[in-house]
Amino acid sequence: MSDVDRSIERWLSQLDPISLDEMSGIKLMNRTDTKFVTSKQKLVGLLELAQGKYYAQQIEGSRIANYRTVYWDTTGHRFFLEHHNGHAPRQKIRVRTYLDSDLTFLEVKTKNNHGRTKKKRISVPNHDRADIVAAGGSDFTAKLTGVTFEDIGPTVQNRFQRITLVNKGKTERLTIDFNVEFHNYETEADAGTGDLVIIELKRDGNVFSPVLDILRELRIKPSGFSKYCIGSVITNGRLKNNMFKEKLVRISKYSGHRFEMKKEE
Predict the structure, then answer these.
(1) Which is nearest to 70 in space by CA: 202, 200, 201, 160?
(2) What is the pLDDT of residues 58-88, one digit of tens each?
(3) Do the domain assignments include residue 264?
(4) Degrees to nearest 5, angle at CA 64 with 70 and 120
(5) Residue range 156-189, pLDDT digits in tens
(6) What is the total count of domains within the chain?
(7) Beta-strand (E) ranges in the chain?
(8) CATH number of the domain bearing residue 151
(9) Which of 8, 109, 240, 254 sits at 20 to 30 Å (Cα–Cα) from 86?
(10) Cα atoms in the 13 Å half-sphere on the side-chain side of 6
(11) Which residue from 199, 188, 196 is spatially nearest to 257, judged by alpha carbons?
């Protein structure tokens, strides 16, 4: 374990814990999301400044959760292109497993013209297409997006670790993702993200947020980041990607290595 990883765990362990049951009233399924991109080094400072202002979600003694997510798309990459081309509303279909609890959900995320995100989901047994369909997955996606599991296939997988903080007023959640790794099912390419950290502030409306002052103090500015889109362009050189070139240049400095798009062979 690196020194910076040890510092993250040390400051995280000093936050007051909050359980899943205690968080049940802060689902924020209809929410405004603001994303920030930074480095593990800056995350250490954030956790230090968050002392006394935030709880850390704790599940079975652990404050760092492990996730696996598989995104599904059409052969023409409809959902990727909706995002790349700036369409709103836009949607994404994903199957996410909470690895520590072995719970899996099929989710549809919709972002509207006003920047608000709605997420709907159903429980499914696993990532297998037949089992998802048997659990009602095709009816679920058809109702929300107009496509069934006959129309889509798995495109990009990510695995990452997540810290979840809740402010003392329990009006917002802050998710902090790191150690993100991608696998592309279409090209079989893999990619990592080094020291990159993706922070997402999730709240209903514009309620007061203590972390915004902390982020300003650390000079961490808002920056959109889609795991699906970034993971896609750095593992599949055949995709349209001009709208993401500048973003990849900016986030390379946080990852600790050159974070670039895979070139088509």
Answers:
(1) 160
(2) 998 999 999 999 999 999 999 999 999 888 8
(3) no
(4) 40
(5) 999 999 999 999 888 888 999 999 999 999 999 9
(6) 1
(7) 16-18, 30-39, 54-57, 65-73, 90-98, 103-111, 116-123, 153-167, 172-184, 190-192, 196-203
(8) 2.40.320.10
(9) 254
(10) 3
(11) 196
